[in-house]
Design goal:
The protein is mostly beta strands and 705 residues long. It is built from eleven helices and 36 strands.
Length: 705
């Protein structure tokens, strides 16, 4: 070799195995190198001759379609030189024609895909698979997503399965969900969303901007995003929101077709957004709020209208109370906000209301919600109202042929209960209500509420339904918001319970307990109703009502049964697609004092379980058998049964048609699983039929070498 022969690169080794282990990215199922920002990674460059002092060697990292030096999208790095945009490279060691380089990206570098070229003199070498994926880094103290606790990072960044909590405040249950952020094409789907978001290069540095953009792109409403929302009950032209058990199929289908996937409801949006944020390296968790207010006017009040039989009316309310709503919290330091608002930030991709002209929501500091600082960006008034609104009940009565509205109750502590997420490192629900609000009735809560009220204009107690505004409301004086539950002279109190398990096909047996607690003789007029409703609060069927007059003396109580025969609800239940709940409403009026009290409780149906039989451990690439068993212990035939099964790293998402399962029949399905990854893996299964919209189960197995 002549000494003056020009220096050429003959190969680049991305040292994938070592780099990805150090960067906690070895889980990603992708050919390319995936690293996190702010942490060094190594590249080995092979040359056609030894590197000499006079040689010029530089690494070029380009991001975007047309990388340019002057706007920072092209980085030209020379060893041992001053850093460039916070990046630097150094030579670790030279060994003959091999040169080991260490590259450290800036801890606030834009996240995305960087194309690597190696320049030697006038020669440019373009390695195969030369695109490097750069993610946020919760392990780096200088990254704004830095999270100190290893256990939390394991849960909120690396865990690819979890639970989403649904049901009602009266009966919460967990729905297992596969996030699957490491599965094939998921990272590419997230990179596609980043490109689609049209975020500027500098916006890509900040997880606040990225998470806001992702909250918009996970719904399809104004940007052809991932999921189309549908709450109509008709899902013929797509997949029912109840039929998903994870995000993988959704994101893979979206990446392949580039068209919105049909259909999602709130827990599906939250599951997918959780996958996207974890995949990009931002710590993220799914958060469920029970009795969440969807208030269209930011006036901290939800009006519920009842007819004279005590049945809830749909048509009158613009606002609503959802039995549960699921969004996400992402973890970051907010560079754009004053001190004290770092940590968890709420983001929500369920399309409800536009924010700055798009269906996006957040990031809103959870601490701002708790303190009542609802002027802080983004959308903090909206999130505050979701967990803090008051609930006012109105009864619509005909007086001289005209509708009149009578207030029959106010609840100040009914909204935003049991705020839940999966506990760190454990398969159980953690209640995080305290992170969102101070204890009800505490001094801090009152101060927080007064602060919030100084930014939100409450509109006093006037009914504001679609056409109620045309009616002269009674007592139209504007009162301040009530901070405490009204105490009645009779000490009236209502409780609603189920007295038997609520199995589809059986009578629904419930009870309303009326209590008084002050001396005197009290005559109580009780109106009770039972309805079927979707989790969004939309009533689908009236099942029955009761009207009783009861006499109570001093401190005493009486239990009034409310029983609904199977014939009264089974037909409606079978025709309803979606998360169905039983709503019981009770209105009590005390004759002597004119005290009024309204209480409602939503309950969910209870189902027999699916059991999973499989070994506790298995060896990598060695098949094992998994059996799924379900016995129909109900009194009804379950029609059109489908069994959905997915196990990340062990079994690809599959749907098994099971036909009809008659009462007492046992269904048994066996699948053969091939583990392709080490560690703890889970099988998730779900059974769906016309009568039952989802019995889920899961089982873990440890895969060893």
């Amino acid at each position: 070799v002549f000494p003056e022969s020009s220096l050429k690169v003959t190969g680049v080794d991305f040292r994938k195995s070592q780099n990805t282990q150090e960067h906690h990215t070895d889980g990603y199922n992708i050919k390319n190198l995936v690293v996190r920002r702010g942490k060094p990674f190594q590249l080995q460059v092979s040359l056609n001759r030894e590197l000499r002092a006079a040689d010029k060697l530089s690494l070029h990292f380009g991001i975007g379609e047309n990388p340019l030096k002057n706007n920072g999208s092209l980085l030209s790095l020379k060893p041992e030189r001053e850093d460039f945009n916070g990046w630097k490279i150094s030579i670790v060691k030279k060994n003959g024609t091999e040169c080991l380089l260490s590259v450290t990206s800036s801890p606030n570098a834009p996240v995305g895909k960087y194309n690597l070229h190696v320049k030697t003199g006038t020669n440019i070498y373009k390695p195969e698979n030369g695109v490097i994926y750069l993610l946020f880094n919760p392990w780096c103290e200088d990254d704004v997503v830095y999270m100190a606790s290893e256990a939390q990072k394991k849960e909120y960044v690396l865990s690819d399965t979890g639970y989403i909590y649904v049901g009602s405040a009266y009966s919460i249950y967990d729905r297992p969900w596969n996030f699957g952020q490491f599965e094939e094409f998921i990272l590419d789907a997230c990179m596609y969303l980043l490109d689609k978001s049209k975020l500027s290069l500098s916006d890509r540095r900040d997880p606040a901007n990225v998470s806001r953009a992702m909250s918009a792109l996970v719904n399809a409403n104004d940007d052809n995003g991932v999921l189309l929302g549908n709450w109509s009950g008709n899902y013929i032209s797509g997949t029912s929101p109840m039929d998903w058990i994870g995000s993988v199929t959704i994101l893979q289908q979206y990446y392949k077709t580039k068209k919105p996937v049909r259909y999602g409801q709130c827990w599906v949006f939250a599951g997918v957004l959780n996958t996207v944020m974890r995949c990009l390296g931002v710590p993220s968790r799914c958060v469920s709020t029970f009795d969440s207010a969807h208030d269209t006017e930011e006036n901290l009040r939800v009006d519920v209208y009842l007819n004279e039989r005590g049945e809830k009316l749909n048509s009158l309310s613009l606002d609503s109370v959802w039995n549960f709503h699921v969004w996400n919290d992402v973890w970051m330091k907010r560079a754009d906000l004053p001190e004290g608002f770092h940590g968890w930030q709420a983001i929500d991709s369920t399309p409800q209301e536009q924010s700055q002209g798009r269906f996006q929501c957040g990031p809103c500091p959870v601490k701002a919600v708790r303190e009542g600082d609802v002027y802080l960006p983004y959308d903090s008034k909206f999130v505050y109202a979701e967990v803090n609104a008051d609930k006012v009940y109105w009864m619509v009565r005909k007086v001289n042929g005209k509708d009149k509205y009578f207030k029959v109750g106010t609840e100040t502590q009914a909204i935003g209960k049991n705020i839940s997420t999966k506990a760190v490192g454990q398969n159980r629900r953690e209640d995080i209500t305290r992170e969102y609000k101070y204890p009800e009735g505490s001094k801090e809560e009152r101060m927080s509420m007064q602060r919030a009220n100084s930014f939100i204009r409450p509109s006093g107690f006037v009914p504001r339904s679609g056409y109620a505004s045309t009616v002269q409301p009674f007592g139209a004086t504007v009162q301040p918001l009530v901070l405490k539950e009204p105490v009645t002279k009779s000490g009236l109190h209502l409780e609603i319970t189920n007295t038997e398990a609520l199995h589809p096909g059986n009578p629904l047996e419930m009870a309303i307990t009326v209590k008084t607690s002050t001396p005197g003789n009290w005559t109580v007029e009780l109106t009770g109703s039972c309805q079927l409703q979707y989790y969004t609060g939309k009533v689908q069927a009236n099942l029955g009502t009761i009207k009783e007059t009861i006499n109570l003396e001093g401190t005493s109580e009486m239990q009034i049964p409310l029983k609904i025969a199977p014939d009264a609800y089974m037909k409606t239940l079978s025709s309803m697609e979606g998360e169905v709940l039983i709503l019981v409403t009770a209105v009590a009026e005390v004759k002597q004092t004119n005290d009024k009290l309204t209480k409602e409780t939503s309950m969910r149906f209870q189902y027999p379980p699916i059991t999973v039989q499989m070994p506790e451990t298995a060896k990598l690439y060695n098949d094992f058998t998994c059996a799924l068993i379900f016995k129909n212990k109900l009194n009804v035939t379950l029609e059109n049964c489908k069994l959905l099964v997915e196990g990340l790293g062990i079994f690809k998402m599959t749907t098994f048609e099971q036909g009809d399962i008659t009462p007492g029949r046992i269904m048994k399905s066996e699948i053969i699983c091939t583990p392709t990854r080490l560690g703890e893996k889970k099988i998730i299964a779900k059974l769906i039929s016309n009568q039952i919209k989802g019995i889920s189960t899961e089982k873990a197995i440890t895969i060893t070498d």
